[in-house]
Amino acid sequence: MINLNNPDHKNILIGLTIGISVTLTLQSFFSRLFPTKSSNEPNYKIANGLADLVGNTPLLEIPSLSRLTKRRILAKAEFLSPGGSPKDRVALNIIRHFEAIGALKPGGTIYEGTVGSTGISIALLSNSLGYHAKIFMPDDVSSEKADLLILMGAEVEKVRPASIVDQDQFVNMAKNMSASKEGSVFADQFENEANWRAHFEGTGPEIWEQTGGKVAAFVTGAGTGGTISGIAIALKQRNPAVKIVLADPQGSGLFNKIKHNTMYSHTEKEGSRRRHQIDSIIEGIGINRLTRNFEVGRKLIDDAIKVTDEEAIAMSRHLLKSDGIFIGSSSAVNVVAAVKTALRMPESSSVVTLLCDSGTRGLSKFWNDAWLRKQKYRISDDISFVLN
């Protein structure tokens, strides 16, 4: 017990008082000099340029389809990425790959052949990271895609649709043009493995985390094949029971390859067709050749579903009317196949797909009712024939 009449005790008490006072004074001084956030304050993260915004897109449930199917229909909203598609992930990973090996120099040009979305992603990221973009595309794609590329500062060259065996095909022209340009590169989205790795490292793990590992099936279409391969590898590594399903538009040969291990019918032989897409208004997915990116994950694909143009049209109109979701043609194909996949699975199963494009990319064709009627398409938001 401290005795104040004891000089030694009194001195100890005075010392303790002074020490506490000095400590509190210093604490107050440094808290003003180096303020810290309250635990109640939001932890803001500021992106360091456009590239920092690529990836980590939200996963949303589509209420009307979940009710109709009695399964959870979940969609990764890739159209909310800065460039409006999952090609942002691919373009950024390709650019980082070429930077890492020293092939792409500051101020260099990135050449690519694309029907639109990859070109838009390359154009935006090129502007952000100090490069130029030169894009070759078929002259029959939706006009707004070319218009967007030009507005973004890309140099655009439209070419006649041709088979991949033709050196005047848009991908081959991009490759040939880039060959002699020092410090510039051919992105090569169809064969460059930075494509599937972007989804293996990013999209797939995000889906797993956002679903808490409760994903029964993943469904998507394939153009380059990088998306389905990368996500399939990522999900199957975590749970081999996850079902991977290819959504394929009419006119594409991939459905036959998965279901029957034969790429073409005799009428679809490579080199005989002159258009990139045959008998379909769907853009961005569907192809009649095997790419390196598709081959990486092909053996992990469990099933394939063929989706007609009219099914995609009906689904897009249904989603806009019932859920306020405005999507493009390739997203509509994905959702149709996701619904068909879900109906083959136990009730309450979670099926994930991608909303990989906005309807704004298809205003001149896919969302142009007058144009569709001229092509003899039936326009409706009735999806009952999809559910049967």
UniProtKB/TrEMBL annotation:
It is a single-pass membrane protein. GO terms for biological process: cysteine biosynthetic process from serine. Its cofactor is pyridoxal 5'-phosphate. Its EC number is 2.5.1.47. GO terms for molecular function: cysteine synthase activity. It holds the Pfam family PALP. It is found in: Mitochondrion outer membrane. This is cysteine synthase. It catalyses: O-acetyl-L-serine + hydrogen sulfide = L-cysteine + acetate. Signal peptide: none annotated. One of its GO terms (cellular component) is mitochondrial outer membrane. It comes from Neolecta irregularis (strain DAH-3).
